[in-house]
Amino acid sequence: MGTNYKGSKAEINALNTYIKLIRAAQSITARLNSRITKEGLTESQFSILEALFHIGPLCQRDLAGKLLQSGGNITMVIDNLEKQGLVKRERGEKDRRFFTVHLTQKGKSSIENLFPKHLAAITEEISILTEKEQHEFQRMCKLIGLQKQESGIEKNKEKI
User: Fold this and answer.
1) 99 φ, ψ to 5°?
2) Is 9-146 CATH 1.10.10.10?
């Protein structure tokens, strides 16, 4: 389903592209997250465990940056993971306000069990595209994602 907006051809095309991108992302995320929630984790909790598993211990600020989340949200998610015994915080020796988040053995075992299943589900979801299409889609998403703020929105403000 596309837009009902009656604008220029360029506007309608842009809106339809955006709608399809967002709907596809929401659709695949919903399917993947249903598997994660069955394991008793939220999407944010899984993302933190996965980041710590693949990157290693990180400070909360770096985790927030990697996951594109606010510091306050990360704190709450880490609190809940700590209550479940999946992560632990270690206070910095030089700066006592600085915390590094580590996987516990229970957290490591949990993500070692979950990640291969999650990866298989992602692989299955994306397999609808050929390898060439996947590379082209990656290129296009990167192009959109790296677009500077001085895009059409800022240019249009100058015209007003």
Assistant:
1) -120, 135
2) yes
